[in-house]
C-alpha cells in the first residue's frame, strides 16, 4: 500500500510540474503569435536554397494540439502566408490535446 501511495504522489507531482510549465509557456507563445512578424503577408518561411537548386519544392504547414479557430488560422496566414498542411490530433489526449471536432473539420476543409 505504501508503494502505491508513493506512486500516486509522484504522478501528482509530475502533473503539477507539467501544469506549471504549460502555464508559463502557453501565454508566452500566444503573446509571440500576436506580435507583428518580419515576414510580409504573402511570404512563407524561407526556402532552403540548396533544395531549390535541386528542384525540390518546400511544403510547410502547422502542427497543432489546439482547436483551430478562425483567429488562429488568420494569424498564421497573415504572418507566414497560406499553409499547405494543417496537422491536428484526431482524438483527445488528456490535458495535452483536444481532438478534431466536426465543426473544425468543416472549417479546415473550407480552407483547403
Please tell me about this protein's structure.
Helices cover about 50% and strands about 5% of the residues. By secondary structure, it is mainly alpha-helical. A two-stranded parallel sheet has the order 1-2. Strand 1, helix 3 and strand 2 form a beta-alpha-beta unit. The protein is elongated and about 60 Å long. About 5% of the residues have low confidence.
Share of β-strand residues: 5-15%
Q: Helical content, roughly? A: 40-55%
Widest β-sheet, arrangement of strands: 1-2
Poorly predicted spans: 39-43
DSSP helical segment count: 4
Shape: elongated
Computed Rg: 19 Å
What is the average of the pLDDT values? 76
Q: Helix/strand/pairing class, anyone?
A: mainly alpha
| Element order: H for helix, E for strand | HHEHEH
Largest sheet features: 2 strands, parallel
- The separation of the N and C termini measures 54 Å
Tell me the number of strands: 2
Amino acid at each position: 500500500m505504501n508503494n502505491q501511495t508513493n506512486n500516486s504522489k509522484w504522478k501528482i507531482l509530475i502533473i503539477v510540474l507539467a501544469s506549471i510549465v504549460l502555464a508559463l509557456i502557453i501565454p508566452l507563445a500566444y503573446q509571440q503569435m500576436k506580435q507583428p512578424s518580419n515576414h510580409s503577408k504573402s511570404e512563407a518561411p524561407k526556402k532552403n536554397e540548396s533544395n531549390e537548386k535541386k528542384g525540390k519544392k518546400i511544403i510547410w504547414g502547422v502542427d497543432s494540439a489546439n482547436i483551430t479557430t478562425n483567429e488562429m488560422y488568420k494569424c498564421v496566414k497573415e504572418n507566414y502566408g497560406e499553409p499547405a498542411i494543417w496537422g491536428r490530433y484526431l482524438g483527445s489526449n488528456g490535458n495535452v490535446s483536444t481532438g478534431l471536432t466536426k465543426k473544425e473539420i468543416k472549417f479546415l476543409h473550407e480552407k483547403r
